[in-house]
Design a protein that fits this description.
mainly alpha
């Protein structure tokens, strides 16, 4: 594959990753929201049961349903960040190939 085609292919990959970033970002935001809402509800329940708010936080976070939501949030965040890194990596590859193309093009020019 020549350099120009390689840039074209990487650009297509970049476009796919950018579109995917929107979905993974929404998934992450949804998971974060679900966790925070459930945690807040649980904290209110524990506070109404008489637990000190500092202790209630630890108790609430240790409940399986809250811990599962936190796991979902962390997992979605990791996927989102991995997608961002894939985009950055692809952009760097394109830049490197473009520089290589520029060098090859400039060396073909007469002095």
């Amino acid at each position: 594959m020549d350099i120009f085609n390689e840039i074209q292919e990487l650009t297509k990959d970049l476009n796919v990753s950018v579109k995917s970033l929107r979905k993974t970002g929404e998934d992450y935001a949804r998971a974060y929201t679900n966790y925070r809402i459930a945690l807040a509800k649980e904290l209110l329940i524990l506070k109404n049961e008489g637990y000190a708010i500092t202790l209630a936080g630890d108790i609430a976070r240790g409940k399986p349903e809250i811990a599962k939501l936190k796991f979902e949030e962390i997992s979605k965040e990791a996927i989102y960040k991995a997608n961002q890194e894939a985009i950055n990596s692809t952009k760097l590859k394109i830049k490197i190939i473009q520089e290589q193309l520029n060098k090859e093009y400039s060396s073909d020019l007469p002095n």
